[in-house]
Amino acid sequence: MEGRFMTDTGKVRHHNEDAGGVFRNDSSQVLVLIADGMGGHQAGDVASQMTADSMQEKWRHVCVNSPAESEKWLGSVLKEINQDVFAYSLENEECRGMGTTIVTAVCSEEFITIGHVGDSRCYLYADGKLNQITEDHSLVNELVRSGEISKEDAKYHPRKNVVLKALGTEKLVKPDIQSIYWKKGDKLLLCSDGLTDKIDDDEMETYFMEFESIDALGKKLIDTANDRGGEDNISLVIMHHQQVEAGDSTC
After folding, report:
1. Which Pfam families match (predicted)?
2. What residues make up the domain containing 43?
């Protein structure tokens, strides 16, 4: 598996509140994540970096061999980190109200286990099609699901960036956890809303078809979002399922 984390501050904001990475544990298994610090909240960058650092540390000595093991670990860890971020915000007045979205995935050769809270997304590109795997925890997505507005209306809704759930804003959180299977040639995309607010799924799919290199693909996605205003930080992880490497094994 080959993976890249890419992030850009954008054209408007002065600092980057996103964090993320591609992390291998002691068994050469891969964890990827994107955390988008809450815009408009104090210390969003603190929340996102705390989350990324904690996920990386907790992953270091873990080994999972099945979707069930992976789902159990991921759900437990996200709840632990939520409590840590929430407690930190209470103990440090300058961080009151901070929070972060998160989308994260455990990637094995056979399966991917995805966990998310908020509106950062996960997509799978397989057989020439790009499919959104996660469901946004956002106001506009709830309005779409209830039939009050259309998907097209959601793109331009004045409150499209209002999230209904985030990591660290409340004492308890229930992340969405699921596992899917993938195969050689497939690509996984994790991204913040700085990307998906500027590029719709159909257009992203054409870029996945056009660019084989994940470096070129990531650059094209970020450049396009910036060309269209870049009002938000833009972050993504792309994983490419290639042939099994010598270091990729069960534990």
Report:
1. PP2C_2
2. 2-240
